Automatic annotation (TrEMBL):
One of its GO terms (molecular function) is metal ion binding. CDD domains: RraA_family. It comes from Friedmanniomyces endolithicus. Its cofactor is Mg(2+). The keyword Magnesium applies. Substrate binds at residues 98-101, 120. This is 4-hydroxy-4-methyl-2-oxoglutarate aldolase.
Length: 228
């Protein structure tokens, strides 16, 4: 399947569905990227979903002189149909993503932005109805404390609790439940696994509404779910 076909197939599913499939494939934490939640177009509300290949941007602290300094602005080279993933230095106080960036990203055909750090200009993103996920919100621009050092290279999630790397082209799925990263080489397998688990869960839900015990129903219906 090409990337467009993968994205189209995944649009029917939630991040939880994807995480369940990735767990079967032994991806740690089902690909969940902890701490990244929806801020726009609403705060943790509504049916907004983003599904697309990652376009990654890595910021470093401004005094890291040995890090590369890419030419041009990352926002001007976003591929249409991508999801922008921005990595800020851990525990950054300044924001690294603002309203003008969403204006350009939307114009370029990006599907949404995920910020491993702070965003700012929150109302501007919402006025654009542009999906943005982030760790937190702030007021101050990045120039004082950080700069871009890498574009479309692997970035590591800022977390002391999990070891997760987002590679360019990995499929990012974000919705009300959070953000999940599908390693690119596993995307088709995820699509293959999800339908049988959804069918089983629908049958379990119907049984529960009819008064059947959960353990009994799960034993019957989940026994045939695809494992790999």
């Amino acid at each position: 399947m090409n990337v467009k076909a993968v994205v189209k197939a995944l649009e029917a599913y939630t991040s939880c569905d994807v995480a369940d499939a990735l767990s079967k494939l032994k991806v740690p934490h089902g690909g969940f990227l902890a701490g990244l939640t929806m801020w726009s177009p609403k705060r943790q509300d509504g049916p907004t979903k983003v599904v697309g290949p990652a376009y990654t941007v890595r910021y470093v602290r401004k005094n890291y002189e040995n890090e590369p300094q890419p030419g041009g602005h990352y926002i001007d080279s976003i591929p249409s149909g991508s999801v922008v993933f921005i990595s800020a230095p851990a525990r950054s106080i300044n924001a690294c993503y603002g309203g003008l960036m969403s204006t350009r990203a939307k114009y370029s055909g990006a599907l949404g932005t995920i910020v491993d750090g702070r965003l700012r200009d929150l109302q501007e993103h919402r006025d654009l109805e542009f999906p943005v996920f982030a760790r937190d919100v702030g007021t101050t621009a990045p120039a004082e404390t950080m700069r871009v050092a890498a574009i479309n290279e692997p970035v590591r999630l800022n977390s002391d609790d999990q070891d997760a790397v987002i590679h360019p082209g990995d499929i990012l799925v974000g919705d009300l439940n959070g953000v999940v990263c599908i390693p690119q080489h596993l995307a088709e397998k995820v699509i293959d696994l999800i339908p049988s688990q959804l069918e089983a869960d629908e049958k379990v839900a119907a049984d529960i509404k009819d008064g059947r015990l959960v353990a009994e129903s799960m034993k019957e219906h989940r026994s045939g779910v695809k494992k790999r």
